């Protein structure tokens, strides 16, 4: 009798367009309702979709509303790249010779560290020690549009918005591409010491930092230029690094390669120029990257924007062989691949691959559709393993979730991609409930006045702690704002 009465009240509430009574919600549904209607989210847009392993709805709130995904966009890029390029795809870098010229050709490898350039130089040295011509850089595998067309110019100097190039370099083993490390150390009685890694003439450093208290050092490259100004304060003996993008990754990569050649006794008499490799040039050295399935780990764990955009242009090159990879061709290829995975691309807008663009629009339902479809793909083990794990301290395990949800039922359980922009927080992935059910979830919040990250953590923890189906699982339910609509489930 109580259930019948509650159903009548809920149906009446729906017909009259008024909020259903709180008693209509229970279990995890009630918990999520309470979390997502808190005062901190007043005026914000909340989009959530939770599905069971078979894809049936468990919880929905504005799940069909288009919102900004921030770095949840990387879920779309990763899945599309696995479909278009394949999990075994490798980037290739070659060194060739013709006459007196030495040619260095890139295909976008984001893992080219100083050590890997050194390996290329060592291979060259084993065959030839002197070149009377020039070092010719070939970056024509991609187009030469370096930055997303709607990225903020204020972010230009940051390492996480570095220019995209077919010939680039990685400052470290984390695959921070197209950016150098500004390394500083506090020194008593004088300014902090500042060095650049890899060593390069691509940037000119002006050191205005002081040795004092704490660690507030910042480094900013002037818009459109190569001058990097270091400011702030650092305590004596304390050290750190700041990533700063370079104006032209191909030029910096060429400089890193020249330095490696010198270390191995190889001289190139002429200067550095750009140009395509002649078809008759002889191969002297080749380096291939790890397969995409392994590159996914730093990409998704550490949320690397540079890898995301490199994958987009690589997809463009694969879709239009013989033409330089570009954002337009790559995003079109990615969108088509997502459609084949069952994502309704009519409501999808992709402005880039990383989530920096404010022209990315996605629904929570599209994300759970993708995450559910991924379970059935042969590349799923690599995709799942690359997602950050809540509370895992190792950066290459926990990634962007390593400091979150520690000591909760979500720790070591939730595998999900984070997303953060000013006014945007997102968390989407997989969770196992307390009673062993496997759920897929997407939760995105736009327009909160303070970070909504803690709220999203509470959502994930509530799912991890849940047991059994929601109390009102018999009828399907859909939420728009605070209104609950109960609809009879059709078999």
Automatic annotation (TrEMBL):
Region (Disordered): 467-491
GO MF annotation list: serine-type D-Ala-D-Ala carboxypeptidase activity
Keywords assigned: Carboxypeptidase, Hydrolase, Protease, Signal
Its EC number(s): 3.4.16.4, 3.4.21.-
Keyword Oxidoreductase on entry: no
Keyword Membrane annotated: no
Signal peptide span: 1-24
Broadest EC class assigned to this enzyme: hydrolase
Matches recorded under InterPro entries: Beta-lactam/transpept-like (IPR012338), Peptidase_S13 (IPR000667)
GO biological process entries: peptidoglycan metabolic process; proteolysis
Biased composition annotated in UniProt, kind: Basic and acidic residues: 482-491
Taxonomic superkingdom: Bacteria
The family this protein is said to belong to: Belongs to the peptidase S13 family.
Xref: PANTHER family: D-ALANYL-D-ALANINE CARBOXYPEPTIDASE, PENICILLIN-SENSITIVE CARBOXYPEPTIDASE A
Name used for this protein in its record: D-alanyl-D-alanine carboxypeptidase DacC
Source taxonomy: Bacteria, Bacillati, Actinomycetota, Actinomycetes, Micromonosporales
């Amino acid at each position: 009798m109580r259930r019948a009465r509650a159903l009548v009240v809920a149906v009446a509430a729906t017909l009259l367009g008024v909020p259903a009574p709180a008693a209509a919600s229970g279990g995890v549904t009630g918990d999520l309702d309470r979390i997502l209607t808190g005062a901190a989210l007043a005026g914000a847009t909340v989009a959530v979709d939770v599905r069971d392993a078979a894809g049936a709805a468990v919880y929905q709130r504005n799940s069909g509303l288009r919102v900004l995904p921030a770095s949840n966009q990387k879920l779309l890029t990763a899945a599309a790249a696995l479909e278009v390029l394949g999990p075994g795809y490798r980037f290739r870098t070659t060194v060739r010779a013709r006459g007196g010229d030495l040619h260095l050709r890139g295909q976008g490898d984001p893992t080219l560290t100083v050590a890997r350039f050194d390996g290329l130089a060592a291979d060259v040295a084993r065959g030839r020690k002197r070149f009377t011509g020039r070092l010719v850089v070939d970056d024509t595998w991609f187009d030469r549009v370096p930055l997303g067309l709607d990225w903020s110019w204020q972010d230009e100097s940051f390492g996480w918005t570095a220019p995209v190039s077919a010939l680039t370099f990685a400052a470290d083993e984390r695959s921070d591409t197209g950016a150098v490390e500004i390394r500083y150390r506090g020194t008593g009685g004088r300014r902090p010491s500042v060095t650049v890694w890899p060593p390069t003439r691509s940037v000119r450093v002006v050191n205005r930092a002081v040795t004092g208290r704490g660690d507030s050092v910042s480094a900013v490259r002037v818009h459109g230029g190569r001058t990097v100004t270091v400011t702030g304060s650092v305590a004596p003996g304390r050290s750190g690094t700041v990533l700063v993008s370079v104006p032209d990754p191909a030029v910096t990569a060429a400089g890193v390669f020249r330095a490696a050649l010198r270390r191995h006794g190889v001289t190139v008499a002429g200067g550095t120029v750009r140009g395509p490799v002649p078809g008759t040039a002889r191969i002297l050295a080749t380096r291939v990257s790890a397969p995409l399935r392994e590159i996914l780990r730093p990409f998704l764990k550490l949320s690397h924007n540079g890898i995301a955009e490199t994958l987009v242009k690589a997809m463009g090159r694969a879709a239009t062989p013989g033409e330089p990879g570009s954002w337009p061709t790559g995003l079109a290829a990615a969108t088509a691949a997502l459609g084949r995975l069952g994502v309704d691309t009519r409501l999808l807008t992709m402005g880039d691959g990383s989530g920096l663009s404010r022209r990315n629009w996605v629904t929570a339902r599209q994300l759970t559709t993708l995450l559910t479809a991924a379970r059935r793909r042969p590349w799923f083990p690599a995709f799942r393993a690359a997602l950050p794990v809540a509370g895992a301290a190792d950066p290459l395990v926990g990634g962007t979730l390593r400091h979150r949800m520690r000591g909760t039922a979500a720790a070591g359980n939730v595998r999900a991609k984070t997303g953060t922009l000013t006014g945007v927080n997102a968390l989407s992935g997989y969770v196992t409930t307390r009673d062993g059910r496997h759920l897929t979830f997407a939760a995105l919040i736009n327009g909160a006045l303070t970070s909504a990250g803690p709220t999203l953590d509470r959502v994930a923890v509530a799912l991890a702690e849940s047991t059994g189906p929601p109390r009102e699982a018999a009828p399907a339910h859909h939420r728009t704002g605070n209104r609950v609509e109960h609809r009879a489930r059709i078999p």
